[in-house]
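Q: Convert this sequence to structure tokens.
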Amino acid sequence: MSAPSLNVPALPGPTVAFESSSSGGAPAPPDSSPWRRLLVFSVMMIVGAVAGVFLGDSLTGPWTATDWALLAVATPVGLMLLIAIHEAGHTVAGSLAGFRLQHVSVGPLKMQRTPQGWTASRSQHGVFAGMSHGVPGPDLQAAPTEVVRRARAIRLIGGAAANVFSGLLALGLAALPVGETVETAALVFGIMSLGVGFVNLLPLRTGSGFITDGARLGPLLRGTPEANRDVALATVRAEAYGGTRPREWSARWVERMLTPRDYGMTDGSTRMLAYRHALDAGRTDDARAYLAEALNLLDRLPRAQHGGLMVEAAYFEAAHREDPEKARVWLERAGGGKGASIPGVPSCASGRAEAAVLLAEGNHADAHRRIDDAESALSEHPVDGTTVAEQAWLRDLARRMPHRP
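A:
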């Protein structure tokens, strides 16, 4: 069984969900990521070479087994420390500028704020990766767009500034007579920290749509349409994290976050938020169009985001298009079915999708069990605006049951 086409419809409200229209899909922008990846790789190689030169000059005598063991332990610890310092810089600068920290991840650990308090979970961004996500606080939400842009710029600069500052401190320590081992470690860490800080300030993008702090900083300082879009996106996220149900999100901010397009991670985020906004408000044609646009970006998005998109496609085809065949294809492509968990997808969402597919297939007994499983998972999920909508969507599926087994 082949999967449906992912071409984005030319106009909102296509006749058939997720299928190509006669006018074709949305144009993909020129992919200039190869030279940017080469530039990033070159900068990293230069930083590594400089660090190696200093390291080689500072060491005396042949390496022992202990030296190699210390290097094996110090390398991952140092990388984690660099990431932690960078994300701490974003967090502190953002707090001073009026942002409210929502979640932060360093390596495999993710800490997230919920209305019930902070929760810890496993990060989906990778072992040597980090992310600090803040949303405008109440004062910023009511402030003019240019004020929010300046605050976002301060928050972005904070990450690189923290790395540069810690790098200078480490180089200062390396200049002191504190022992050869400490001097060498401080020297290498200082150079690496400075390198991370300066690379993050370069305006670079990857093929999947990930962009550095420097690439975001320029538009914010210039007040470009892209910067205004990002302000709108941050404001909608603030409403969601604050407990506002999707259909009650500001329509003005939802509209503003949709343009201009970047055909990457930002588009993926804005389309899925707009999908939930429209779906919760009962505008299924609009929801279908936004979801189709997001699905057409699968090859440009991180793999960790694929499951969530496919799960929503399965749910929509089953619950709103009543097409169990296509819905089953999407669910299986996501790795779901038979109660299986899907990496990066909340159990309540995957359970909702599978329940909708089973209901469309006429398997009412299993559909009822999946609804119960999803409701149970939802009761343990942090409460935010989307959680309220999830409860409503599960109740809607339960009402469609011809009888309760």
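Residues 1-39 have pLDDT under 50 and may be disordered.
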